[in-house]
Amino acid sequence: MAAILARQFGLKAQLPRSLMAISKQLYSSFHRQPARFKHYPGTIISAYQSTRISLSRRPFMALASSHEKSRSIGMEWYDLSDERKIQWMLNSGSSEEKWGWVIYRCSYKPELQSTWESFKDLVEKRTRKKIAESDAPDIADKLDWVFVEDHELEGASLDELKHRFRAWARSEVQGGYDIDTTSHNRGSRHTYFIQVDEAALLSLVGGSSNGYVNIVRGWVDSLPPEEATDEFGDAIDIEDWMKIQADMVAPYFYVNLENEEAWYAHYSPPPDGLCIW
C-alpha cells in the first residue's frame, strides 16, 4: 500500500518507508502544494488522520496480541493509563526488568553544567510525580533513567553513540535473548536512546519551554557513501533521529514508542523539524 501511494503521487522512494510515513508525507505535501492534489484532498487528509488514529491505538510491540493483553488485564488495552501499560510490560515476563531510556550527555562545557543538572532533576522529578498520581505507583521502583556522563563523549557522533548503546543493551538483556537479531521485540528501552549535545543543552538554558533533546533509533545503521543518495542526488533520510521537546522524556512517549510504527507517526525530519506531542 505504501509503495502504491508513493508511485501514484510521485513521491521519492526512501527507506525505511511505512504506510504512516507515506501518508504523513502526502499530508505535508498537500498543504505545501494544494494544486498538485486538487482531486484528492479528502482522501489525503482522511488517510493521514485515520492512519494516525489507528496507530495511536495499537499496542506496543510485544509477544502478546492486544486481545490477549486486554483479556489478561480485564479491560481494553488502549483505555489503560500509560503507567498501567508500563506495569503490564514489567510484569509480562518480557526481557525488561527496568524501564526508562539511556540519556547521553555529549557536551561538557563548564558553563552548561548547571543546565545539565537542572535537566536531570526535572526529568526525574516530573516522572516520579506523574507516577505517584497514577494508578500504578509501584512502577517507580523500576524506573531507571540512565544518565551517562563521560568526557569521552564530547562531540560524539551518532554512530559512536549507537555502538555504545548496543553494547549496553546486550549487557543488560538476560536469559539468552538475542537482541541483535530480534528486531521487533526490543522494546522502547532497548530500541531508543536520548542524546543531549551542545545545541540541545543551549536550548535548555534557563529552563526554556522551547528546549529540546534528540531521540535516536539505536539499531539503525548509517548508509555507506555509495547508497547515501537517491537517483536525484538528494541525501536519503534513514529516519534514525529527531528532535523532541525535552518534556517528552516521559512515560507517555516511552510507552508510545513501544510500537515501532509510532516512530513514523511522529517523525519530524531534522535539523529543522521538532516533534511536539
How would you sum up this structure, described in words?
It is a single chain. With 277 residues, the protein is of the alpha/beta class. It folds into two domains: 1-56, no CATH class; 79-266, no CATH class. It has eleven helices and five strands. A five-stranded mixed beta sheet has the order 2-1-3-4-5. β1 (102-105), α6 (113-132) and β2 (146-148) form a beta-alpha-beta unit. The longest helix is centred in the middle third of the chain and has 20 residues, at 113-132. The chain is globular and about 50 Å long. The two termini are 27 Å apart.
Provide key terms for this protein.
2 domains; 5-stranded mixed beta sheet; 11 helices; globular; disordered N terminus
